[in-house]
Design a protein that fits this description.
The complex is a heterodimer of chains A (about 300) and B (about 625). Chain A is α/β, with parallel strands linked by helices and about 300 residues long. Helix content of chain A is about 40%, strand content about 25%. Chain A is built from ten helices and eleven strands. Chain A has a six-stranded mixed β-sheet, with helices on both faces. A three-stranded antiparallel β-sheet of chain A has the order 1-3-2. The longest helix of chain B has 17 residues. In chain B, about 40% of the residues are buried. Chain B is elongated, with a radius of gyration of 37 Å. Chain B is about 20% helix and about 35% strand. Classes of the chains: A alpha/beta (about 300), B alpha+beta (about 625). Chains A and B meet through strand 9, strand 10 and helix 9 of A and strand 3 of B.
Chain lengths: ~300, ~625
């Protein structure tokens, strides 16, 4: 597929009005991070930002304008006011590109496409804020970095050109991604998480230990949620491992599955809550633009 | 192979095609086992406890059952199911003449036919012969499988079912048959029906007449006699003489009785008027009554003397008698019109004949010879309303409206072209008053004279050779000539010629009140735009000319002109006698002994169509394939 066509496909999903709305949004973080340059986010670096951060004793060479004369009047000592430096934010998108994300093919969009659209939208919001955006497609082994709002089409092309990976070693790939960023920042991990929670948490712990502000987007399709489309009795196979089993999809099985899924999601939520991680459960039945403009701001992920 | 009565399978071996059914089942099971769905992950599904995973239930989709149904229908069609249908046809003829209204306390009926006798016995109590006939017809229909047509006999043989109908429809039609107050020409008509019946069609006649054993019946005709002789009393006629010197008038009532040794009868005489608009009876007064005793099979005449002043426009006589001695109620009353001034007729004949004109109510007839006529002065002739010349005609047209019956060959007024033997009337002028109410095709003429058609005459009745009845009007003088015998006037005994005579006399005399009082039991021609009021007061206007059957006795009104209808069938009233029915075999009669014909109807084409429809339906509702992971 030519790059121009790829751009048109993913870029054309959203309307120009949506892109303009994204320019007004800013990715929120729960903590402050050091950036590489001036940006829109408060960092813990002291500098010349607008946000007051505290006082320190006057040192020769300090700007006289920052001397707090009222304190001097009270204490006969010279103190200068300190401000937080506003710097850019490193935003990383880790997208699960395993086969399970592209299955079932009936859903439109499938989970992978949904994930890419979400990552593109959030990435553009970050770029317009002056943030640096990185994309890691699990299984590819490559981290793609972008900055500046003009990088949007490149991002779309990169996401379009990435395919599915049969086997994904999440832990290895996340380790690789984390190591490629000099400073931590915001990390969005987008997957269906339909695997052992322990595997997921091991991978996420790497990010947590590197001080990333992690948000997990768990994307499920309506078929994942309710087993719709499965006949009463059939052979079913795993989209990644190819493992087959005979499955009777009666009412009891559906109820049991719903309970198991609920427990699985809850365990992920509990893990996230314990580790200061945001967990957002999303269905591919939702619209990405409504999710980004309405729900994420309500959750405090965007402002 | 016969199944379910008339259905059978021409190729039952085709049932072996059912071996395809297991193949269909295997195909679906195989399809089902090969089908698999890809899911995102088995991670959670694997955790569903084994108890929930029941052994895979073999559940076949709706498509399978539709395909199975289509296959079964095709197998059935391949066995070529066919239906045998009987093509036998039957004509049921019900005699609905007056005599069939006779009731009898208990009846046994027998049959006569050219092929075999079937003698169902009917035990009834006081039901009419017509009811017995209908019941017997229903019995015959109960064992018949084929198409039926229903006929009634009175006043003429008529098919009352439009086309050949089913047994159920025939039974419903039988319920609608009502008796008519008439005679019929049953012998000839039944012979003709049996002759004309198509090959394989049987005719069954239900009648109270006995077939004449002297003649062999047509082999396709069966006559089932119903009813048995029963006693009856009937009024045959009532006339009113002209007023006598003391201003009284004599009413003569002729009766006939039979079937019982002696019968005592009470007669009640009424007079009444009729509302000209509604034909409703008004001002009915009982005038007189009398008892009369009749011996069996005797006629008697009862006389009433009534004052002229007490008389209204009409008289009615009603007889009462023991029920057991009176099996027919329809002939127990009579109505006649009371004429005002007497109709004076001059009858000119070279020799005395029994003309019967005195039977016309209010008529006075003077009989003269041609010589006497020649000597009559004009003022003597002028007092008469009309003249009738019988087999003689003056040289010059008389100055009096006249009827010439069988004018002489060399007559100057109405010359005769030729004399014929037996001839049939071929046409008549509907619009002329002389033929009002007449169905002349029923009139057979043993002999006739074909009259010369003259410029100043109108042809009223014709045969194939020429006109038989002419009429003309010149300067107010009306002349008519009949080339066939219309006398003697017998009233109801010969209704056609009687009506013709009355119509002619009325037309000649221009006296309207007179002719309206004669019974007309045949169809009545009602002209376009005229209204007919029935005795029950109902009115019907006719947008087009139509012949109406008058089946009820009473007074009708046509355009405010009254028409009296009475029962006039003496032969029908003789219910104590068994009348003969003479049916003659003709050479063209349908052959005997036809095997029961059956027709085979293939029923497999609609089955094929049904199978194709099911397959189309199955294709149309085929669900889109798909599972949780998408089907492979």
């Amino acid at each position: 597929m030519s790059s121009e066509k790829a751009d048109r496909h993913l870029l054309d999903v959203f309307s120009p009005a949506f892109y303009r709305s994204l320019q007004q949004l800013k990715i929120e973080t729960r903590r402050t991070f050091l950036g590489s340059r001036q940006g829109a986010h408060l960092s813990h670096k002291k500098g010349h930002g607008l946000e007051f951060s505290g006082y320190r004793l006057y040192s020769p060479g300090d700007d006289f304008r920052h001397i707090d004369w009222r304190i001097y009047g009270r204490s006969d000592r010279l103190y200068v006011r300190e401000f937080q430096e506003e710097q850019d934010l490193n935003v990383m998108f880790i997208i699960d590109c395993s086969h399970s994300m592209a299955s079932p093919a009936l859903s439109t969009p499938d989970k992978l496409m949904f994930a890419k659209q979400l990552a593109l939208a959030l990435g553009y919001a970050a770029l317009t804020d002056g943030d640096t955006v990185s994309y890691m497609l699990l299984g590819s082994g490559t981290v793609h970095k972008f900055s500046g709002a003009r990088s949007l089409s490149q991002i779309a092309r990169t996401l379009e050109n990435s395919g599915q990976s049969r086997q994904v070693d999440m832990k290895r790939d996340i380790l690789l991604a984390a190591s490629q960023l000099k400073t931590p920042g915001k990390c969005f991990l987008i997957s269906d998480f339909l695997y052992d929670t322990a595997d997921a948490t091991r991978a996420v712990n790497i990010l947590n230990s590197r001080n990333f502000d992690v948000t997990l987007f768990q994307i499920l399709s309506p078929e994942d949620i309710s087993l719709s489309g499965l006949p009463d009795s059939s052979w079913i196979s795993d989209s990644e491992s190819g493992e087959k089993m005979m499955f009777t999809c009666d009412e009891t099985a559906r109820r049991t599955y719903a309970s198991l899924l609920s427990q699985h999601v809850k365990s992920l939520e509990e893990y996230s809550a314990r580790n200061g991680i945001r967990h957002v459960l999303v269905s591919t039945a939702e619209k990405v633009d409504e999710l980004v403009l309405s729900r994420l701001p309500e959750l405090g992920l965007l402002t | 192979m016969n199944i379910f009565g008339s259905f059978f399978l021409a190729t039952p071996a085709a049932i072996l095609s059912l071996l395809a059914v297991p193949l269909l089942i295997l195909a679906y099971l195989n399809r089902r086992t090969e089908k698999q769905f890809t899911v995102s992950s088995l991670y959670l599904l694997r955790q569903i406890p084994q108890a929930s995973l029941k052994r895979a239930r073999i559940k076949l989709p709706l498509r399978f059952y539709l395909e199975l149904l289509a296959l079964l229908l095709l197998v059935l069609a391949a066995m070529l199911p066919q239906q045998e249908q009987s093509t036998e046809e039957l004509s049921i003829v019900i005699d609905n003449s007056l005599s069939m209204t006779a009731t009898s306390p208990a009846t046994s009926s027998g049959t006569s036919s050219g092929t075999s006798s079937v003698a169902p016995s009917l035990i009834s109590s006081s039901i009419s012969r017509l009811d017995e006939a209908v019941a017997a017809a229903n019995t015959v229909l109960g064992s018949f499988d084929g198409k039926v047509s229903i006929f009634t006999t009175s006043p003429v043989l008529k098919q009352i079912s439009s086309e050949a109908v089913t047994i159920e429809e025939a039974k419903l039609l039988l319920k609608t048959i009502v008796p008519t107050l008439s005679t019929d020409n049953l012998s000839a008509e039944i012979t003709a029906l049996a002759d004309k019946a198509a090959t394989g069609r049987k005719v069954v006649l239900f009648t109270d007449r006995e077939p004449d054993t002297a003649n062999a019946l047509p082999v396709n005709l069966t006559i089932q006699k119903v009813g048995r002789p029963s006693a009856n009393v009937a009024i045959l006629n009532m006339t009113v003489d002209s007023a006598e010197a003391d201003d009284t008038r004599t009413v003569k009532v002729e009766l006939i009785a039979g079937g019982a040794e002696k019968v005592k009868v009470q007669l009640q005489l009424y007079t009444f008027s009729v509302n000209r608009e509604s034909a409703a009876v008004t001002g009915q007064i009982a005038l007189d009554n009398t008892d009369i005793e009749l011996d069996s099979t005797h006629t008697a005449t009862a006389l009433f003397k009534v004052k002229q002043d007490n008389l209204s426009d009409y008289l009615r006589v009603q007889l009462s008698v023991e029920k057991d001695n009176d099996s027919i109620a329809g002939d127990d009353s009579y109505i006649t019109a009371v004429s005002g001034d007497a109709l004076k007729i001059l009858f000119v004949s070279s020799s005395p004949i029994k003309h019967g004109l005195e039977l016309i109510p209010g008529t006075r007839v003077k009989e003269v010879t041609p010589d006497e006529f020649s000597l009559m002065k004009p003022e003597e002739i002028a007092v008469f309303d009309a003249a009738i010349f019988y087999r003689w005609a003056p040289r010059y047209a008389p100055k009096k409206s006249s009827l010439f019956i069988l004018p002489p060959l060399d007559g100057a007024l109405f010359p005769v072209k030729k004399r014929l033997g037996e001839t049939a009337i071929s046409s008549w002028t509907d619009s002329h008053p002389i033929v009002s109410y007449l169905r002349l095709q029923l009139m057979s003429l043993p002999s006739a004279e074909v009259l010369a058609e003259l410029p100043w005459t109108t042809s009223i009745v014709r045969c194939s050779e020429g006109p038989l009845f002419l009429a003309s009007e010149i300067e107010g003088i009306r002349l008519a000539a009949a080339g066939f015998e219309i006398l003697p006037f017998e009233g109801k005994k010969s209704p056609l010629s009687s009506i013709l005579t009355l119509n002619t006399i009325r037309w000649l005399s221009q006296k309207n009140k007179l002719a309206a009082s004669l019974a007309a039991e045949d169809t009545l021609l009602v002209k376009t735009g005229k209204s007919l009021v029935y005795p029950d007061g109902s009115r019907r206007t006719f947008p087009d000319s139509e012949r109406v059957s008058l089946s009820s006795a009473g007074i009708y009104q046509i355009d405010a002109s009254p028409l009296v209808v009475n029962v006039i069938a003496e032969e029908e009233s003789r219910s104590w006698e068994t009348h003969r029915l003479s049916v003659v075999t003709s050479e063209e009669a349908a052959p005997a002994g036809e095997e029961k014909k059956e027709q085979k109807h293939n029923t497999w084409p609609p089955i094929i169509f049904l199978a194709l429809t099911v397959l189309f339906l199955e294709h149309a509702i085929r669900p889109r394939l798909g599972g949780v992971g998408g089907g492979k």
